[in-house]
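Quick one, tokens below:
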């Protein structure tokens, strides 16, 4: 067994609002997030780089197994690279819509009006490609285990989407499958696997989204106790 130095600790006394203010904050944040929608019609209007930096910084505050922080956020704004990503994504999507997806999946997608055309990958000013790190590396180059990678990166993506909404931006969670082409196009190391592709920007002037119903609290929560 190898002894490791104990993690240094610091005092932690986060702000604790009174009950009324806490409820007000929780309600305001819920209403903010309830207005979040997956957007496929973007404006090409640029987004301030420092705003995207802050959004990604927020995502990286997510908890992770053993604090390994097994994620990489690749920000793509280069038009030529966005075009190559679109071409590769559409190639995979044509195969998906052309036979890979079972009929039930296609039936569920039909009301949303999606297809293999992914022009938003070029129109949106920013693409954030989230990679999960299957393992890390020690200073000598040997592999270092990461823990709960899927869970950790999934939580970080949730933080990312909340931060995007809070910043007044819109986004789409895009998962072309398979996504191996993203590691190739972005020249990522062998330990990284594409997890999520997120176009980010402002909505187009004529943007429309499906009028969806969210499940009520009683449909998603089960109480145990008073």
């Amino acid at each position: 067994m190898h002894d490791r130095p104990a993690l240094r600790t610091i005092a932690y006394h986060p702000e604790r609002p009174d009950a009324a203010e806490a409820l007000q904050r929780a309600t305001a944040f819920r209403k903010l997030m309830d207005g979040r929608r997956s957007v496929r019609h973007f404006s090409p209007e640029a987004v301030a780089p420092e705003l995207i930096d802050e959004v990604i910084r927020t995502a990286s505050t997510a908890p992770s197994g053993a604090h390994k922080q097994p994620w990489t956020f690749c920000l793509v704004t280069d038009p030529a690279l966005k075009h190559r990503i679109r071409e590769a994504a559409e190639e995979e999507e044509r195969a998906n819509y052309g036979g890979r997806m079972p009929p039930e999946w296609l039936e569920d997608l039909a009301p949303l009006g999606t297809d293999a055309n992914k022009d938003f990958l070029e129109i949106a000013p920013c693409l954030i490609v989230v990679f999960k790190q299957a393992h890390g590396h020690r200073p000598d180059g040997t592999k270092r285990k990461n823990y709960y990678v899927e869970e950790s990166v999934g939580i970080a993506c949730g933080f990312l989407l909340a931060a995007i909404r809070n910043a007044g931006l819109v986004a789409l969670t895009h998962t072309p499958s398979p996504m191996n082409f993203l590691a190739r196009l972005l020249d990522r190391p062998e330990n990284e696997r594409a997890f999520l592709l997120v176009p980010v920007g402002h909505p187009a002037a004529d943007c429309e989204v499906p009028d969806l119903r969210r499940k009520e609290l009683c449909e998603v929560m089960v109480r145990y106790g008073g």
